[in-house]
Backbone:
């Protein structure tokens, strides 16, 4: 009976230590991911003068809605040059999605002169349902390139 109690306690202690180790590893991983995201957001603000406000599915999954706030119009200028065609790359498949250009409406993006503090948008066609919530994507507009964005 005494041996069973010692063995039982040892098993319980080992299980508790394994659980604690798992929590520590998970917390470190989450902390590293949050730090990487904060660093990427800071780099985007400093280099391109914008912050991404949302990246979501729209129109029943047929479009990806990309929205961003302009913090520095001078740095963000390249995103508004009409000759710079925007592309979205699905990182899993490396497939490229473009902004649809509708006959009477034109490209589904804002391309007016950027103003500080305003939120701008563009829609990428997703007709084949390639991109979905949780997809990691890259957005390219002229020299602008931002990677590892996650679709909500």
Residues:
């Amino acid at each position: 009976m005494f041996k069973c109690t010692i063995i039982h306690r040892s098993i319980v202690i080992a299980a508790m230590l394994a659980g604690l180790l798992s929590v520590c590893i998970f917390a470190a991983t989450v902390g590293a991911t949050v730090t990487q995201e904060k660093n990427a957001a800071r780099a985007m603000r400093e280099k391109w003068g914008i912050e991404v406000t949302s990246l979501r599915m729209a129109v029943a999954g047929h479009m990806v809605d990309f929205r961003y706030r302009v913090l520095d119009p001078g740095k963000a200028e390249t995103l508004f040059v009409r000759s710079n065609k925007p592309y979205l790359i699905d990182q899993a498949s490396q497939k490229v999605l473009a902004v649809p250009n509708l006959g009477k409406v034109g490209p589904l993006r804002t391309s007016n002169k950027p103003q500080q503090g305003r939120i701008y948008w563009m829609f990428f066609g997703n007709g084949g349902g390639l991109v979905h919530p949780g997809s990691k994507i890259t957005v390219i507009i002229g020299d602008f390139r931002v990677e590892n964005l996650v679709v909500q």
In short: Residues 49-150 form a domain with the Immunoglobulin-like fold (CATH 2.60.40). The radius of gyration is 23 Å. The longest strand covers residues 50-58.
